[in-house]
Amino acid sequence: MSRMTFLHKRRGSQNFYARMMVPEQARPIIGKREFIKSLGTSDRREAEALALPIVAGWKAQVLACKSQPANDMEDSAGLLDYRPTMAEIEEAALLVGFEEASRKLDELIKSKARLGSTAFDSMRNKFVERYTEACRKQLAGDDGFWLDKARLLVRRRGWNVVEDSAEFTALVTHFAKCGTDLFRRAVETIENPGAEFVPSSHTQRLIKDRTDRAREGEGILDLYDLYASQRLSEGKKRADTLKQDRKAVEGFADFVGKDRGLSSITADEVRSWRNAMSALPACYKKHKVFAGMSMQEAADYAIRTGAKRVSFLTVNKNLSAVSALCIWAKREGYIASNPCEGLHYDVDKRKNPRPPFDAGQLNRILQSPLFTGFDSDGKEHLSGSLQTRDWRFWIPLVCLFTGARIGEIAQLHVDDVERQDERWFIHIRNDEVKGQQTKSGVSRPAPVHSMLERIGFIKFVERQRRKSVE
Questions:
Q1: CA distance 65 to 88
Q2: pLDDT score, position 80
Q3: What φ, ψ does residue 316 adopt, rounded to 5°?
């Protein structure tokens, strides 16, 4: 088979993927039905070159599995010296303990049915006994029967999982519950052929989690990084904006599960995240009282204690970051619809709840130690005899008299302040070459206020200009 056969392109996506189905006999060892990996390129020749070593590695894994005797599960130890995640533990237990076993079970029932009523009745009695015993042991908390099966699976996959670990305990528990479902399925299949089997809520949850789990390279944060790279290249978003938006998306991924596929996210889950956000104070993770809590636990605690809440404007801002990702993902073919649609709070962001400083407040700021004399570097908030006329002094004053943002003033170069037609101007620039940015993406001039001139701003600029050429 040529390597190009392994190239795949999702509908609406620009980039190629390498993709290969795992042969059925190798799935219990490898733990997945297919390999898939984003190649990060839309160029076919480049994709072919990138896919070749990846597919070769996949084939080597399959070949190693096929080389193991069908009933010898111990000789493959070391194939994957790997510590699995809880999601991989769950998937392995579901695949081996229920799905693959169910397929073999169906074949056994058919073969016994063909042999006649004696063989069929004997098999039915054995499965009734096994199911009854499995239920008894589960009620008694006795998982001993499943320990050997868990040990066998760990050796078979070469997993680095010790028996006193949380991963091994979870594997035994999943095997026990899936195994009980398997025996119940056998009894119901024998007694009522053709009826649809409904697994326990535990097994149904494992099946749903696997369905909801993202493909390799298509997790929520993986897609965000693709989105950010594309928007940055298109010039549609600024790097600092994308960095801030990623924090919101990270919080969302933590809430719904980082391994979730974006297509599995529902509007109800987005609404729950939004509601949890709106119940919390700003920067709640920095508050010791919320240490160790999940976001939902922290929100429940905040509601009970009446903690101060973040503004709806902030909630909408974070929701917009996730919504922008979903709009892009829908356009690229990753999802069918935007689960964030219609969930923004109906607030007018033009109504600023924080009024401007009045004269009294401004005077208190300008009479603080930074301007009148402070203790030492790093303790500018404490009174002392030290005074400065460096950036710490000038940035807040220039912001005050120009209305510019702190970042726009902090990035100024000395040649951004110049005299034109007998007036001094500050050129607030948006210049990618110099690493300067404005909120609007547009450069603009701002006249130097006469008060700034009187207190020495131009003299400060001239001193800095001289230093830059020395």
A1: 18
A2: 46
A3: -60, -35
Residue 85: predicted pLDDT: 81
Report yes or no: 188 and 210 within 8 Å, Cβ to Cβ.
no
Side chain identity at residue 414, one-letter code: V
d(CA 156, CA 77): 6
Give the pLDDT confidence score for residue 1 in this predicted structure: 35
In 3D space, the residue among 298, 267, 297, 270 whose CA is nearest the CA of residue 282 turns out to be: 298
Q: What is the largest CA-CA distance in the chain?
A: 110
Can you spell out the DSSP letters for 82-133? B---HHHHHHHHHIIIIIIHHHHHHHHHHHHHHH-HHHHHHHHHHHHHHHHH
Residue 251 and residue 202: Cα distance in Å, rounded?
27
Number of Cβ atoms within 10 Å of the Cβ of 264: 17
Structure token pair of residue 123: 């098999």
CA dist 464 and 460 (Å) reads 6
Segment holding 389, helix H or strand E: none
Tokens representing 190?
A: 């024998």
Strands 34-38 and 16-21: antiparallel
DSSP 434: T
Alpha carbons 372 and 102: distance in angstroms, whole number: 80
Q: How far is CA 29 from the centre of its chain?
A: 27
Work out whether the CA dihedral 120, 121, 123, 124 comes out positive or negative.
positive
118 residue type, one letter: T
How many residues are present in the chain? 470
Pairing of strands 7-9, 16-21: antiparallel
What is 218-283 written as a DSSP string?
Answer: -BHHHHHHHHHHHHHHHTSS-HHHHHHHHHHHHHHHHHH-TTBBGGG--HHHHHHHHHHHHHSPTT
Token pair for 350: 């033009």
- The predicted pLDDT at position 204 comes to 93
Is residue 210 within 8 Å of residue 90, measured between CB atoms? Answer: yes
The pLDDT score that the predictor gives to residue 11 is: 60
pTM across the whole model: 0.59
Q: What is the mean pLDDT of each successive set of 10 residues along the chain, which is 470 residues long?
A: 60 75 76 80 79 80 64 43 80 90 92 92 93 91 88 84 90 93 93 91 91 82 89 81 91 89 92 94 87 89 90 92 94 91 83 76 91 92 92 93 91 91 91 82 90 92 85
pLDDT at residue 258, as a whole number = 82
What is the rounded CA–CA span in Å between residue 26 and residue 156?
11
